[in-house]
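Here is an idea for our session: we take a single protein and study its fold together. Once you have written the record down, we can walk along the chain together.
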Amino acid sequence: MKTAFLFPGQGAQVMGMGADVESAFPTAAALFERANDVVGFDLRRVCFEGPADRLNSTTMSQPAIFTTSAALLEALRASPVGQGIRPAVTAGLSLGEYTALYAAGTIAFEDALKLVKRRGEAMQAAADATEGTMVSLLGLDEDKVRQLCDEARGDELLEPANFNCPGQIVISGSLGACERAERLAEKYGAIKAIRLEVAGAFHTSMMTPAAQALRQALVQTRISQSPAVRTIANITGEYYQGPESVVEGLTRQLTGAILWQKCMERLLADGVEQFYEIGPGRVLTGLMKRINRKAKVTNISDVSSLKAVIG
């Protein structure tokens, strides 16, 4: 059976995440130790104890989600049953793409975590220099979302940023344009317009300084020429082909739209039958149910769901 491992992105964080797997699995505990050494502070304590406002910040949530997801992955791999679950492909939503590349053997854990930490810092700095936000639109197709953006944009920035699943598209841009879009959403038939708790207009040109800083870090990172497992790129819905495409994809990801629905439809078309969402929360499990109700998705977000898989 062709299997894919999926990894969540920013927004999946929850206080206490990883604490149960860290205490139950020595491999997970060791990974949190390694993470603390890389970031230079007690990341484990922030994951387990918060405070929430610190965990939810862009600079903290990204390394925290990456490390918790990786710890769950290592706990799965440490079990005899888990060793038999081998993915043919990995994928991750935005930040989750770094976990996917780590899981595929494309980037080493320490290198990936350094990149994630740099990414969070660069995105926060770019957000601090601008006034932007994001709005999730429920119940609209792509054409209607683009029409809404055209009307709400004015002379500011506003564009689709995340194509998550049928009926859920996130738009991103300047604060004023997003506020106008919220007011106009009902006119275009949206069920709901939800302002996201984010620091800025992610996945737009407002993140250009962050993308430039990230590229500098990426070109200095060791990226495998021939990883054991393929990874699909958010930005194209195509598989990465070597280190240069990884650098390009992860850089463009900050200023371009995330094509999650397209990525999942590609994996289904390529014969993936079993998906495992590995990391905090159940966001990707929910999205997959909207993309293809018949798709088989197993969620591994804590010790109880992990033990349901490995016995």
Q: What stands out?
A: The first strand starts at residue 3 and ends at 7. The CA atoms of residues 138 and 192 lie 5 Å apart.
